[in-house]
Amino acid sequence: MTRTARRPAARWLFPLVPPMVLLVAACGPARVAGSANAATTGPPTSVADVPAATSSAAAASGAETPGRAVERWVTQILQAQYTEACLSSAPALPAGQDAESLCRKPQALTSAKSLREAWAKPGVKLPPAGKVEVGTVKATGDKVTVPDTAVKLDGRTLRSLELIGASGDVGSFSLSLKVEKRERAWYVTGFDLDA
After folding, report:
1. Distance CA 152, CA 55 (A)
2. Residue 88: inside a domain, yes or no?
3. Domain tally for the chain?
4. 104 belongs to a structural domain
5. For a 10 Å CB count at each end of the chain, is N or C smaller?
6. Are 16 and 176 in contact (CB under 8 A)?
């Protein structure tokens, strides 16, 4: 009897992929590749009681640089300000979409919590005690992609935090945030996840 060796998969990533897709489906575009379980879906259809942002206008104001947009968005996720993080992408939504309705969907909340769980690990200080820092981001146009290796929390890259507890082949895993400039301000509009 001949046995075929199987390459172990990073099983912990697969439960994270669909919720992450739904967060960006509620807040902006995303691309997820490499997983049979990953599928980009449209906005969810049910509504839940998610805390509203203190001010939609404040949450949706853009940042002066792509790095600042990423710092703010990741900090909001880590501080469990999920609605604010979602609403911060509102100016980049296609015309006619209501950001507040989309950001109140239960799937958006679940997805944001999944991101937080991927990054908030024991022994790592969260904001405001732990600082989110983004390395140099060079934008040559109105769009830029920021890899998780360029974003640090409490001195550790998001990639290193995402891989804590992973098993199997994680060499191809990567997450990068998409940032776009709209009317002289920068917004996180989605992400690419390869698993």
Report:
1. 27
2. yes
3. 1
4. yes
5. N
6. no
